[in-house]
Design goal:
mainly beta, 1 helix, about 5% helix, about 45% strand
């Protein structure tokens, strides 16, 4: 689902998502895949069908890995009566240094409530800010709603006093809209709908933001792979 190169070691890391399992993996020097930690597969046991680890990024210093669960997970215990629960996706902050503290789990509140909406990608902006990609498929209109948000790791809402276990989430992000990419895209003499964006990254000099779509099982006729190249305004 996602692939990133570690900023220091240049090792490749991946997120994997199946029908009932999901994991975070890394590639060693012999080109062999290994689970990063048994914790990830165990934590994803309550994920919805085909909605596991999707986004992946690192802190600029390479000390931490962040990964997001695509959609809210199932609850293992009953929610207390008269308590409403928003659609919140877990975002894991995992230390890559040995003998560090256990993972910190943030909550990302989805900004659209459609069932097909979810987190599709993560990108590090700086040491305190992540970019989160949300995309929803609107079946009636037959189009994708793709929006990018920023979240500040140091500006969250503490929820560690809830009367039940909310997937281990202790802090909830406050998303701010960065980009709304839901319109038809002009392409020569025709236009195409925004695709299923599942990857975001910067160009080598950070002058462009690149978005890439999932072609949904290789269907290049109905859902061709799209690559969006967005120029970043140096003086917004």
């Amino acid at each position: 689902e996602a692939v990133r190169m570690h900023p220091n070691s240049q090792q490749l890391y991946f997120t994997h998502e199946g029908t009932g399992t999901s994991d975070v993996l890394y590639l060693d020097s012999a080109a062999t895949l290994h689970p990063l930690s048994p914790w990830f597969a165990s934590y994803a046991a309550l994920m919805q069908w085909n909605s596991g680890y999707e986004g992946l990024c690192f802190s600029p210093d390479g000390y931490f890995l962040y990964s997001a669960i695509e959609r809210p997970m199932r609850f293992e215990e009953a929610i207390p009566d008269a308590l409403a629960v928003a659609k919140i996706c877990p975002v894991v902050k995992f230390s890559l240094r040995k003998n560090e503290n256990p993972p910190v789990i943030f909550g990302y509140p989805l900004q659209r409530q459609e069932n097909d909406n979810g987190v599709s990608a993560l990108l590090t902006l700086n040491d305190s800010t992540l970019i989160v990609a949300e995309r929803a498929w609107l079946r009636t209109e037959k189009k994708n709603i793709v929006r990018l948000f920023t979240v500040n790791l140091n500006n969250t809402v503490c929820i560690d006093d809830l009367p039940f276990d909310f997937y281990g989430i202790t802090e909830v992000f406050r998303p701010k809209l960065l980009l709304n990419a839901t319109h038809e895209i002009p392409l020569r003499e025709q236009s195409v709908s925004t695709g299923n964006v599942e990857g975001i990254t910067f160009s080598h000099d950070k002058s462009f933001l690149l978005l890439v779509t999932d072609n949904n099982y290789g269907n290049q006729t109905a859902t061709p792979t799209q690559l969006y190249v967005l120029k970043i305004d140096e003086n917004p």
